[in-house]
């Protein structure tokens, strides 16, 4: 097998110094996620963030779990994500995604699989210490969440007509030892299509909830791919060979052979139940809604299973890092390749806090004005609820730097000409919610968002020649950097702009004067300027 | 004397570890400002930034200067600015400003002054090594600036009718040893009013250019105060006693007795000359324009004079830090006290890059909708060219955190209802410039900006109840912080939001479920929810 399973990936992280082992007892219900949260809300720079391995997990009932919990191991930082993809750079990651989406490789079925080293079925699932009791599922948002929820939580189901499987990542609420709530987060998800088709046949939907898998499977599970494309085949494309899968014990589905944990069962299509609230990635508590649930028929897992949890609340978080690169690439391909707007250089799905979906920055090289508007409208209309504020910036603006984006908006935009409001949007993955409306049908099944929100498109592209950025020319800044280092001063991480460059409004006379100045010959310029005096009015 | 002069202030900085001495030779024309620039564009966190003292200054002509140069000593960081104000906290600074503006104290005249320990007049000023040659004036933007410019550069002039002096900080271009260009940066400055009044009398305007002064004088020089209020009296109000002043040698003006350097002279009101380009605080090269100039009649200075230079290009910079607190306080007083919008809590004049003027964030506590709009319009109309994008945010949004501001804009704003475009603005202190238009009169004297720009007002205030922020409740985060510290992990600097809190949409049932969950009793909730099943549609 040429691709890593999670255990090999953890070894890689540890060898790189990117895994933090916690040996002291940690309560999964009250301590674990708050502790890791500080890594993202405590001003800890990216390079000091790590993945976490909790070796001694307890809970609010005083239980001790044999199984360790890992958090942040798939995308705790960009570097961790790159390593999980088997890459060192963002360019390599993008190349792998390009290949995977263009050339998916279907999975291959094996007979014996690690994920079925232990198998539990029937009444055993409802006994104390069995069923979902086996797993140290942490509470993500203690004080607000009403249960532990699975978060690295890949739901596999199948289109009953085509037989094509789908893998999607949706939270799972622990309701009892043998019942798990599922929140397919809106009507657009593939599993909902499967659910509706089975409902039409009067049958429950067979499903498998996979927790922990070879990293490539997890990365594919959160990527948005066209309906009918099997994410396991995309994962195969990512690793360049078929993902090994095994047949489930009680449902007609296949799951990754090296998965950590598999929960098999049937999702009722007859009834729905209250589910939530759960602290979601949009930064607010997602409200209680009526949602499907699964009655568990089998649980299988590796003997050395590791429970994998993601943080997916206020960004930055693991769930945002894991999606960011894929989303950005998808938008870039859409704008640049499908809409053929060749001036698009880069698409930044912004976080922190805004959660990738709401603020999009499009970096462009010398676009025509109409191209700018086409790019802005195309970005705002590509996905529902994505692209509420979209800003086009020039090549010299770092789209990941909010201050630089505001700078472009302030100096390169006249709002009455360069801002357009787009009506008819829905609010998407965002509050406010009106959970009390559930009596009136505001739930996943009869959930129709009104189009009463709007978007704002900002053309912050430079429209006419500007004078140079008022920083020393590059050669002086580079020389000064050597001086800085000679002086033994703190390590520099240059931020754009860090040197001056022309934006079209400069000429030979000014250039010559600047050259005289750095030679100490500025009085010559002063004498010249005196000859250009005019009468003051 | 109860207030510090610059030399005492430098000792305070050094004692606090906030002064970086550079003993190796540094070229003032090519090396000095680029080196300090890295402190602001090199990813160096605020707490590692310092003031700089260059003890061995050379120039492009190979000269060595006896006089040292300091950069960043008045506002290289907020802490340095607080110390210069004789304060430890922002609250103390604000209290001093409040007192100074309410109770200015006129200066007191003395006979003998340190700033006149050396006096040079007449032809001597034009000899090699004299006149402006005495001073190691650095080039701010090597490669673009056409000369060294004075930057900590306080111009003193007097209203010929009222006799009231004004101190304003405007750059001074070294044109010859005895001629300095002045850029009063727009028609609104007080010195321009003096200049027009003297022009009407057919006389030149007497002026004194003060470089380096007791810190309080410098802080007052950059503060915007009403016309006719003497900044030296404001400085007196800041320090709680009269500023000591002395009569100039060749012009009828008084200057701070402890100033480092004073350049006396007459500004022609008959002629204007090309001046600039110079790298300005708006982040672009300010173009050449026709501007006044001063013929020098005397130079006086302390025997131990230190040349003071500010960095005032791309923000963050010393020139932005030195203005920020005063500007914010002025806007807060305007909105909260003069316009009586009591819900205004704080005004953030944003930088970096946007340069304080263009982006304003107003933090408000539970405002009515009309109050929000009144605050937004009042902020945008208070000063010309200030407040192009103005955003109102709630109390829980950190207005200094751009990501948080974007977060509020994305989730608490429907642009079609909550954004207003304001027509009829001028572009203010910003490009584009059309310096080639100078033949057509685009200069300081006949300079009229068209009102063809616009502003954008954003009401990002929460309009209806939201569910809680999806982070663990404060008690769990605080406990986890203790765990974090026990584990010896990197030092935390919490960023808002770092815990969850309700925004109005939460109820007792959900609270009870969350309490059960952290006790490990979540299956009870699961059983309850099963009783609330409904038929799926």
Structure description:
The structure is a homodimer of 537-residue chains. Chain A is of the alpha+beta class. Chain A has three domains: 6-309, Roll (Pnp Oxidase, Chain A), CATH 2.30.110; 339-459, 3-Layer(aba) Sandwich (UbiD C-terminal domain-like); 474-530, no CATH class. Helices cover 28% and strands 23% of the residues of chain A. The first copy, chain A, contains 14 helices and 29 strands. In chain A, the strands form seven sheets. In chain A, strands 8, 9, 10, 11, 12, 13, 14, 17 and 22 form a nine-stranded antiparallel β-sheet that branches. In chain A, α4 crosses α7 and α6 crosses α7 (231-239). The longest helix of chain A has 21 residues, at 318-338. Chain A is elongated. In chain A, 60% of the residues are buried. Residues 435-446 of chain A have low confidence and may be disordered. At the A-B interface, α2, β12, β18, β19 and β20 of A face α2, β12, β18, β19 and β20 of B. β18 of chain A pairs antiparallel with β29 (534-535) of chain B, so a sheet runs across the interface.
CATH level-two architecture of the largest domain in chain A: Roll
**Overall pLDDT of chain A, averaged?**
94
What's the CATH class label of the largest domain in chain A?
Answer: Mainly Beta
Uncertain segments of chain A are: 435-446
Secondary-structure content class of chain A = alpha+beta
Q: Radius of gyration of chain A, rounded?
A: 27 Å
CATH superfamily descriptor of the largest domain in chain A? Electron Transport, Fmn-binding Protein, Chain A
The CATH topology of the largest domain in chain A: Pnp Oxidase, Chain A
Strand content of chain A: 15-25%
Helix count of chain A equals 14
Assign a percent range to the helix content of chain A. Answer: 25-40%
Number of strands of chain A: 29
Described by the principal axes of the CA atoms, the overall outline of chain A is elongated
Largest interface: A-B, 153 and 153 residues
Number of domains of chain A: 3
| N→C terminal distance of chain A | 84 Å
- Largest sheet descriptor of chain A: 9 strands, antiparallel
Oligomer: homodimer
């Amino acid at each position: 097998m040429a691709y890593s399973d999670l255990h090999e990936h953890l070894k890689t992280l540890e060898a790189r110094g990117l895994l933090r082992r916690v040996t002291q007892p940690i309560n999964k219900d009250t301590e674990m996620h708050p502790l890791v949260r500080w890594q993202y809300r405590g001003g800890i720079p990216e390079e000091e963030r790590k993945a976490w391995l909790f070796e001694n997990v307890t809970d609010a009932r005083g239980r001790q779990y044999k199984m360790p919990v890992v958090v942040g191991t798939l995308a705790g930082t960009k570097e961790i994500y790159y390593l999980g993809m088997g890459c060192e750079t963002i360019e390599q990651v993008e190349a792998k995604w390009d290949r995977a989406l263009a050339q998916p490789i279907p999975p291959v079925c094996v007979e014996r699989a690690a994920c079925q080293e232990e198998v539990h079925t029937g009444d055993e699932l409802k006994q104390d210490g069995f069923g979902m009791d086996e797993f140290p599922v942490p509470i993500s948002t203690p004080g607000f969440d009403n249960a532990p929820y699975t978060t690295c939580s890949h739901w596999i189901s199948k289109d009953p007509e085509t037989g094509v499987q789908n893998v999607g990542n949706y939270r799972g609420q622990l309701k009892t030892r043998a019942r798990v709530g599922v929140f397919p987060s809106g009507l657009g998800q593939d599993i909902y299509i499967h659910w509706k088709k089975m409902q039409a046949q009067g049958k429950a939907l067979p499903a498998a909830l996979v927790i922990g898998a070879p990293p490539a499977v997890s990365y594919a599970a959160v990527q948005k791919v066209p309906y009918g494309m099997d994410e396991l085949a995309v994962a195969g494309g990512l690793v360049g060979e078929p993902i090994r899968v095994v047949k489930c014990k009680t449902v007609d589905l296949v799951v990754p052979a090296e998965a950590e944990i598999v929960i098999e069962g049937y999702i009722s299509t007859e009834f729905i139940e209250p589910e939530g609230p759960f602290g979601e990635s949009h930064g607010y508590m997602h409200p209680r809604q009526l949602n499907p649930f699964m009655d568990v028929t089998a649980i299988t897992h590796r003997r050395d299973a590791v429970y994998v949890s993601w943080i997916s609340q206020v960004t930055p978080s693991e769930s945002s890092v894991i999606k960011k690169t894929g989303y950005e690439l998808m938008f870039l391909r859409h704008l640049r390749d499908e809409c053929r707007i060749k001036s698009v250089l880069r698409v930044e799905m912004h976080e922190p806090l805004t959660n990738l979906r709401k603020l999009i920055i499009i970096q462009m090289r010398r676009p025509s004005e109409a191209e700018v508007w086409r790019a802005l409208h195309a970005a705002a209309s590509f996905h529902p609820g994505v692209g509420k504020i979209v800003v086009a910036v020039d090549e010299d603006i770092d789209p990941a730097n909010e201050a630089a984006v505001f700078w472009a908006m302030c100096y390169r935009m006249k709002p009455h000409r360069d801002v357009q409001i787009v009506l008819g949007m829905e609010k998407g993955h965002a509050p406010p919610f009106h959970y009390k409306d559930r009596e009136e049908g505001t739930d996943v099944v009869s959930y129709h968002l009104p189009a009463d929100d709007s978007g704002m498109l900002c053309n912050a592209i430079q429209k006419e020649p500007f004078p140079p950025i008022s920083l020393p020319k590059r050669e002086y800044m580079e020389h000064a950097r050597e001086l800085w280092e000679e002086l033994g001063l703190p390590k520099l991480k240059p931020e754009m702009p860090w040197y001056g460059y022309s934006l079209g409004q400069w000429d030979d006379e000014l250039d010559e004067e600047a050259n005289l100045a750095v030679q100490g010959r500025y009085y010559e310029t002063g004498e010249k300027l005196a000859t250009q005096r005019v009468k003051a009015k």
